[in-house]
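Repro:
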Amino acid sequence: MPIPLVPIIAALAAGGTLVPHAAGGLIVTAAAGGGYVAGTYLSTAAVASVLVGGVAALGTGVAVATGAASAVIGGAGVFGTTIGATGLTGALMSAGIISATPIWVPIAIGGGIIGIIAGAYKLYKLKKKLRETPHGEEAHFTESEARAVERVIRLAVKYNGFKPEA
């Protein structure tokens, strides 16, 4: 059964925000007035489906992008020398334009990896909560979890890997 995300995506695009609903599940509140937007309720089962579909689409896109980026950027050779250097880094080192990798590069990469791990752990905890919710009951979400689900929906729509069903 398709998840009717069209009204949710439209409400988010109009400036709405995904928030926890008092009865469980999530719902979009309007940017003006702060009231709930009709037709935008996401049950616990729908949130689980959104996470599975949205994260899978994003994961494929990230894997392709990082693989292509690392091939283009390349790497330094043995112990930072030009011997065995590849890609753009190798070309710049061979031409004498750069002598070695600047220190900010591994620091930035390390920070990015930590951010990715933290986000993955947050999604893991959310998926665990969804799995542990008894069948037929609604999970009560936090503001942080609602923001995480909203972020997945926005990114999945942005990168066109996730098409809402009408």
